[in-house]
């Protein structure tokens, strides 16, 4: 980073200052969307029922709730009562954005669906989050959770190798992606309202977010009806030298996708003779050729040779050596290890969240903003 640019404090980056958001959401997807809007400066009011958000009662205690809802105002309303509905409608009429990720139909039954809110505030940007969206009437009211959508969307068949049972991703990837997609959609909606003066209903589904996460494969499936092969830990380039390899002190992920990258790996490992081995490659590897994905006559033999050599190296030392030779490589870490390292070296800039006596360190927006000094 050049000396003339300075990283701006996340607390000072508030492009949504003055935007009022009314948040009828719970658990992860909706609260994460409005958390991001709040970090961008929006004034978010979270409406909870008298039972409260279930995240308040998880085994992790209040930490999970605070990580998603710190910085928001809070209102407890009983929408089953006339007074609760009246208050909620008044708040909706005064809001720029209304977000709903309750069960489909719940807010409609209480006079707080899009049409009812639009009658009070025609320029409202109303974002409805659901499992499968409004476009398919037969699916509109289907209940959904993260792992259910992973199963329905084909995501659970993407991990592992052919013949393995389905594998759920080890974190709520669909919930988080849905929250980010909803935040993006709301930002676009606000810009469109600024441009045209008109409000709108934005329909965000967990299923749609799942397909966006698998975007290249989704395009193939829509175009040709194809399913990608299950490749385990091998990189999606298909290069046999892009995979996970056991090493001393851990595992190493190597992304040697191109001839130039693989030549560097072979040189570091003392396997330079393989680059011109006619049993492995149809043509000798050429580091000056236009970039293309590596293919081998005998991928298994190449991978076996790499694995044998890598097994004798220290994972951390080889990571550094390959990176210095411009080869993408990383020692496998736990999330706790990486979060601490990333925070210490400036890869991420954690923000401190504080809510009702509970402290959480968060990645905040997940991106940095730099200004001219």
How would you sum up this structure in a few lines?
The chain is of the alpha/beta class.
Description:
- The protein is α/β, with parallel strands linked by helices.
- The chain has 2 domains: 5-224, Rossmann fold (3-Layer(aba) Sandwich); 242-332, formyl-coa transferase, domain 3 (2-Layer Sandwich), CATH 3.30.1540.
- The chain has helices at residues 29-39, 63-69, 82-93, 106-109, 114-120, 146-153, 173-196, 206-213, 215-224, 259-269, 299-310, 315-324, 335-345; strands at 5-7, 20-24, 43-48, 73-76, 97-100, 125-130, 200-205, 242-247, 250-255, 329-331, 351-355, 358-362, 370-372.
- Strands 4-3-2-5-6-7 form a 6-stranded parallel β-sheet, sandwiched between helices.
**Strand order in the sheet with the most strands:** 4-3-2-5-6-7
H-E string = EEHEHEHEHHEHHEHHEEHHHEHEEE
CATH architecture of the largest domain: 3-Layer(aba) Sandwich
Structural class assignment: alpha/beta
Radius of gyration: 25 Å
Distance between the termini: 12 Å
Counting structural domains, the number is: 2
